[in-house]
Amino acid sequence: MVLITIFVIILATMKRLRQRAIPYNDLPFSGADYTAAILGGNPRRCVSVFRIPASTFLFISEQLLESEVEPVLNLMIEEQLAIFLYIVGHNNSNWQAQDCFQHSGETISRVFRHIVELFVVISEKFISSPPVNQTHGHIKSNPKFSPFFDQCLGALDGVHIPASVPAMQAAAHQNRKGFLSQNVLGVCDFSMKFTYLQVGWEGTAHDLRVLEDARLKDFSIPSGIFYLGDAGYALDWGILVPYRGTRYHLQEQGMANQRPANHKELFNLRHSSLRNIIEQSFGVLKQ
Fold first, then answer.
1. More confident residue, 227 or 19
2. pTM (two decimals)
């Protein structure tokens, strides 16, 4: 009899606790409402929150929707993309996204992974090697570059993207400038379009090591074709680098206040002028 009484008391207590429970996600608007408000509001706010204009946001949403075979829960693709951009655009945490979009931590995690998977799918549509059987107009129309660089498809370089990693991995990701990063290999054509990306390497990795790994995997350079790289890379099949020990960058020759003194300086000047396209592309990417 005593056990039954205790059991009844426990049940009654649990019932009262359930009745008193206040849901955490109790804001008067949903994640879908928040997303719609940002997209339909001041254009500057959209760029501030999602890091891209509303027109770009909607374009990406359409591309993701076309690739979405198995939708996650019952969320519109726009809200899913908003959650993803809110996190990666500001390095926000899962709980911050929960509070903003009024979803559980599990839902936020599932949405984030789902959008990453969709981006991998559509990346093949937008990041691909340029045609190898035609010279880019930027080279073809300039006698300073053609015919000498007619077989050049673009330029490549490494860029350090800030990263958040567990404490035990911090040392491997701390680059020579002192901040935690991934060393990402970027390859672009002369229209400033990225044609290949290799991600995942720690900030301590050398640019050459990242390139070597990419070539062992899926970055192939057809015979007779080449890309431009800086002095941090080795001269190799498909990789054309400047002469070492010779003035290279445009500002170096400009500060010398003289024309190229020999064929090596002239080559380095032309090489630098063309290779600068990858630095411009990274600059746009970071804006």
1. 227
2. 0.77
